[in-house]
Design goal:
The chain is mainly alpha-helical. Helix 1 runs antiparallel to helix 2. The chain is globular and about 60 Å long. It starts with 22 loop residues before the first helix and ends in a 12-residue tail after the last helix. One of its GO terms (biological process) is DNA-templated transcription initiation. Keywords: DNA-binding, Sigma factor, Transcription, Transcription regulation.
Length: 195
C-alpha cells in the first residue's frame, strides 16, 4: 500500500526579466505560455478573428511597454490580461452595439415568422438575446470583472491586478453582477455566466 504523501505545491516561477538585452527570447516564452489562454478569453468575448488580432496586439503593446512592467505589483499573467482588457475596451462600443442589434433582430424575427421556428430554436435565440442584452446593460467595469473571471478564468486577485482595482472591489462587483443577473431570470443567471 502506498502511503499518502503531501505533495508540495510548486512555487511560482520567478518573474521574467523584461528589461534584458534580448526581449525576443523572453517574449517568445511568454507567448508560448499565455497566448492560448488569452486567445480563449478574447475569443469568447469578441470572436476568433478579432481575438487573433488582439492577442497579437497585446504582445506588441507588452513589448513596447515592457519597461512599465513591475513584478512587485502584478504577475505577468494578470499584466498581460490587463493589457488585453484595455485593448478590449476600445471594442466595447462596437461590442455593445452588436449585442443590442442582436437583441433587436431577435425581437423582429419573433414578430415576423414565429411559426417557422422550432421550439428549441426559439428557446436558444431567446436565451442568447437575453444574455446579450444583460451583458450589454452591465457597467463596463462590472462586465470586465465578470468576463475575466468566467471566460478568462482569472482568480479574483488576478482580476484585481489586471484591472488595477482592489480585490475587495472585484468581489463586490461579482456579487452585485451575479445578484443582478439572477434577478433577470433563470436563463440569464444560469450556467453561461457563472464562473
Amino acid at each position: 500500500m502506498i502511503a499518502d504523501e503531501a505533495v508540495p505545491s510548486p512555487s511560482p516561477p520567478p518573474p521574467p526579466d523584461l528589461s534584458g538585452p534580448d526581449p525576443a527570447a523572453v517574449f517568445g516564452r511568454l507567448f508560448d505560455e499565455h497566448a492560448v489562454p488569452l486567445h480563449g478569453y478574447l475569443a469568447r468575448r469578441i470572436g476568433d478573428q478579432v481575438a487573433d488580432d488582439l492577442v497579437s496586439e497585446t504582445f506588441l503593446v507588452a513589448l513596447q511597454q515592457r519597461h512599465t512592467y513591475d513584478p512587485s505589483r502584478a504577475g505577468v499573467r494578470p499584466w498581460l490580461f490587463g493589457i488585453a482588457s484595455n485593448l478590449l475596451r476600445r471594442h466595447v462600443r462596437q461590442e455593445v452595439r452588436g449585442w443590442r442589434a442582436r437583441a433587436r433582430v431577435g425581437a423582429d424575427r419573433a414578430q415576423e415568422s414565429p411559426e417557422a421556428r422550432t421550439a428549441e430554436r426559439v428557446t436558444a435565440q431567446q436565451r442568447v438575446r437575453r444574455l446579450a442584452g444583460a451583458l450589454a446593460a452591465l457597467e463596463p467595469g462590472d462586465r470586465d470583472v465578470l468576463l475575466l473571471t468566467s471566460w478568462g478564468r482569472l482568480t479574483a486577485p488576478e482580476v484585481a491586478q489586471a484591472l488595477g482595482i482592489p480585490v475587495g472591489t472585484v468581489h463586490s462587483r461579482l456579487h452585485r453582477v451575479r445578484r443582478w443577473l439572477q434577478a433577470q431570470g433563470p436563463v440569464v443567471g444560469g450556467e453561461d455566466v457563472d464562473a
